[in-house]
Amino acid sequence: MRVRFKVKHIVLYVLLPLLLISSTAYVLMMPQVSSWLHGRTNQSLAEQRSELLEDLAKASAPERINIIREKVIGSGSSYTPFAFDVYIGSNSSQWGDSSESDSPLKPTERIDLLNEYITQSVPGYELEEASQQLVFLYDSLGQQKQADQALQQAMAKFPTPSEQRSQLAVLQANRLLNEGDQDRAKQAFEKIHPETLDENTNLKAEWALLHARLLYIDHKADQALVVLTDAIKELKENSSSSGSDPANVSGYTPLIRMQQTIQAAIQHHEYAAGTVQGTLKHSDGTPVAGAGIFLIAEGDLNSYSSNASDSGPYHTMTDAQGRYAFHAVMPGFYQLRLGLSFQQVDGWTWQIPADPWIHVNQGKQLQQNLILQPLIQLKQPVNDQIITDDRITFSWQPVQGAAYYELEGGIQLPKGSSRSVVKGNIRTPSTTITAEELYRMSMGFSYGSSGNFESVVPESILSFMNPNVRLSWNVIAYDSNGQLISQSNGYRLTRESMGSLPFFYLKNRTLTTADRILLDKKPEDALAAYREALAANPQDVHALRMLTRMLSTRQSIMENTADNDEYIELMQRLLLLSPSSQDASVLTDYYYRQQDWTAYNKYLELYLTLSDKEVTGNKTALSSYERSTYAVALMGQNKLQEADRQFKLAMQQDPDHRFVGSYIANRLYMDRTLESALTLAEQYPQHESEQTAYFWTNLLQDMQAERTHYSNSDLYDQELQQKLGWYVQGKEDRLKQWTSHPTTHTPILQKFMKALLEVR
């Protein structure tokens, strides 16, 4: 069934971080990888290292200090601790801006030179920078004691008080707090002189965050809020006087996030920090040392920065045994993100948990072990194989522990690529599909910055039906619990990890006249040509399919539904001539939004048949989105008990609990008690980037308070039941009209109903 996504999770598919190998050269897609491989192949980094060490050996003591300052420490902008080649999270993957792998020196060599600089140099910015780099290197090697000693040595060289000394003290206190040494963290904090921070807004924000965390773990949450509130107020005042936006100051958002976190903790009577720890290992048990581990708070998941300070206070590195730990973690919901070098990620993929959310509460110590799995090796079709048959067999190496596989197909566009699930629930490491099955697959569409129909990318509409486009494929392995094990798509950067490339061409049809017009970037003319072809031959499935895609694309781009009746009629004809689950899902979705339950049930049944799915039983289960919308449809047909059952199953499938608002409304309408609804809200917090996970819990608690203070609780219950009836029965227009006029009698009830209208 087609899923209509909210702009919530930005997933960047890394379809082509792939190296095309010939006998004489490496050709690469991404400049960062190209630079890394260049260093591997022509030994330029080794040459740089030899030259640098030779210069140092010949230099006098003062000259050595200058060389270290220029060539090892570098400018401040050239070095960022916790910067990695690749960042991988549960919902995104990004390339880094820089990496320690760019340094020609070995870590131990850099450590010796940085120690020399700290010992011999005079206080200044470079000394502070050298100290931070040295601490990062020690930590990356699991040598925390040496890092502590280096910081103490560096701080002793700065006068008391001074901004640089305070900067290093903030770093030291944060490290100790994250390591779980609260007493020493407090001692380090006491060495900070706040008056030295006035000229450094970012450092002042870091100090306030550290102070708030220390107060919170000392059971002084109210005082922590005062510190944060004062820091935010001061930052706003400074920004106002300079005419700038406080949101553009890097320390502002972390302060706001921490303020919200502590406010929520107080509201839910949470006064103890927790611990998140674990290991990062390969599937064979080999530890991954020196990898970055980031614990990202829910509100920060959709932002990305290579600067660790922008990702919140929780970042660390794995030691030689692959271990990591975060102590003094504030209550809330988090996800993990990895920072890896090209060497670490080459040929591997992270086995991301089916439920990536980590709930820190009640001071619990949580264990989160992370596993890197080898990428799946592909057999056929590969290496730009040309297929002219009507059937395509995909095969790959079996994966240990896999219960089933999912096949994705992709197309290369002039700028970028696109892919979609072609077939699921594959029980063996191979499957055969027909060319017609691929032709039925719509990949969405792309269009230019002008935002009009004429800018549509033709290849995105023709999709697999274009014999001249390069196709790709990916296979994903799952265990019996639906947990992703591995996939074939990923970072393959060397001859050893490359394997066969997942590209092929499907050339068993020729382009029609209308296709050529479309590829000539004349979509309106192509639309007319497809109409003519269909008029000439009403059985022309290709013309019919392209006509539906063109009309749908134009409607979406131009936000004009004038052709909608024609589009639906053509979709119905297409389903009769060439039945496909994807097209059946389009009509199911359309009638779901029209609340035409007779038509919805008809096309849902067809969709289930064509996709070999069913609501219950041993066939492939509905996705969480499909099951949630099915539950809403049942609710609209007054089948409340079955709707409640389907909602519960959907919540168990969807870790984000996207439709929990509708579940709450259905249960509340049946049981007529806020207590049962509140239980659901607490059990299934909704993870939505635009609101806190406690949104529904807080709202229902506020409704309980509003009901208590209402003049007549029975009348309140009657109004609540009436408004819920409008929602359950699909009378959204009536509900929208009521919520558009603010009321002073039941403002929380009105806010609750307004929130229900946003559930999609």
From TrEMBL:
- A single GO molecular function term of this UniProt record: iron ion binding
State the SUPFAM superfamilies in the record.
Starch-binding domain-like (SSF49452), TPR-like (SSF48452)
Q: Which Gene3D superfamilies does the entry mention?
A: Aromatic compound dioxygenase, Tetratricopeptide repeat domain
Q: Tell me the protein's name.
A: Carboxypeptidase regulatory-like domain-containing protein
Question: What lineage does the source organism belong to?
Answer: Bacteria, Bacillati, Bacillota, Bacilli, Bacillales
